[in-house]
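Q: Convert this sequence to structure tokens.
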Amino acid sequence: MYDVIIIGAGVIGCATARELSKYELKIKVLEKCSDVCEGTSKANSAIVHAGFDAKAGSLKAKLNVEGNRLMEGLAKELDFSFMRNGSLVLCFDENEREQLTKLLKNGISNGVEELKIIDKPELKTLEPNVSDKAIGALYAPSGGIVCPFNLTIALAENACINGVEFQFNSEVICIERLSSNGDGYYCLNTDNECFHAKLVVNAAGVYADRIHNMVSEHKMLLIPRKGEYCLLDKSVGGYVKSTLFQMPDKLGKGVLVTPTVHGNLLIGPTAEDIEDKEQITTTAPGLKKIAEKACKSAQALPLNKIITSFAGLRAHAEKDDFIIEEISDAPGFIDLAGIESPGLTSAPAIAKLAADLVLARIGAGQKFNFIPNRTGIKNFASLTRKEQKEMIKTNKAYANVVCRCELVTEGEILEAIHRPLGATTLDGIKRRTRAGSGRCQAGFCLPKTMEILARELKLDVKDITKSGGKSNIIL
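A:
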């Protein structure tokens, strides 16, 4: 019997697990995939939004601003990359100035600090490569960028060392509410085991509606909203410094142009409502649309430097707001659903709200031995020559460069495998170390990375997968 079972190991599930690990609770996280960060959390804009566009009074508005304020401290505690690079909503004609003023007033109402509207000369000073057609912008200095992989992995690792159990490859297929001696509890059946919990937290991303509908008569519908992206090479990563937005519409914040914390340039996403919750293919029309819209924001955008494209899904709720509540007809079952943008930004604040709901149901004292800090994998490429030599003295595996594009060493890959919740797949290595993330997109390092994984996990190399399941490389 667990006190709490969390369904889903994305950024929301992992943030909630970490927050609850501060208390004397027996907690388990069930994830249907082979690793954390395999759903919505793996493919998004990686933006820490300032919070000026969410509807005033909504959960999105409140938790966005709170999450933004918490992110910097969390990055220091858990050692993941975060940067306040500021964001700009561009205005292209006089007719849009009224919308810009509305965004400014809405942002001020939401509690966003230091917002201001700037004119073309100041905009050009901030961003020399911004389109000449832009006549002004709403400037939000508190906007930022983060690595969604490292954020989610950091939260999960810290939760794990504080006692939270994680179980992967465990899809929840049936949930029943049972009672014993007058106390209710939940029985969760996965495809291979059964678990009992006093409380359940539903953080299942685009599948949160299916999980909800297993226990409630009040049915939920989440619409998968697909977004396609293009990633550009590090050689043009500094083309813009801020995150460039266009005017938001009913489908979202539109196509953006932004640097990443790793030094690349990212453009996207599209916004297309679909039915298939697994459909993350990119399309020629979608990528063409991204390119055309991104070129509206930045002049002479170097699209010849695109190194890869990808797509992700957001869980859009019909009410167009986060759903964070205990289900009325399922006591002790808490939904964290409809977490689309600004979900990544809001994750730390959502976790605190979810913990409050759990603690209101089940009394638990704080742990006296909670470990708040976590140290990430040292990035060999960012070290000084002296520091690199010291690392090699400690472990000769750091002298063996496996990924040349990102200068990732065997030492880093070994650490990624043997850390808490260590990598077991090629994508797991990629997200923890960036091996395979560079210009050649694993063209050179993939065979060596597979050999290291097979050796350390004591597997045949043919059993190594890209992302678990049947994603084998060698058939």
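The first strand starts at residue 2 and ends at 7.
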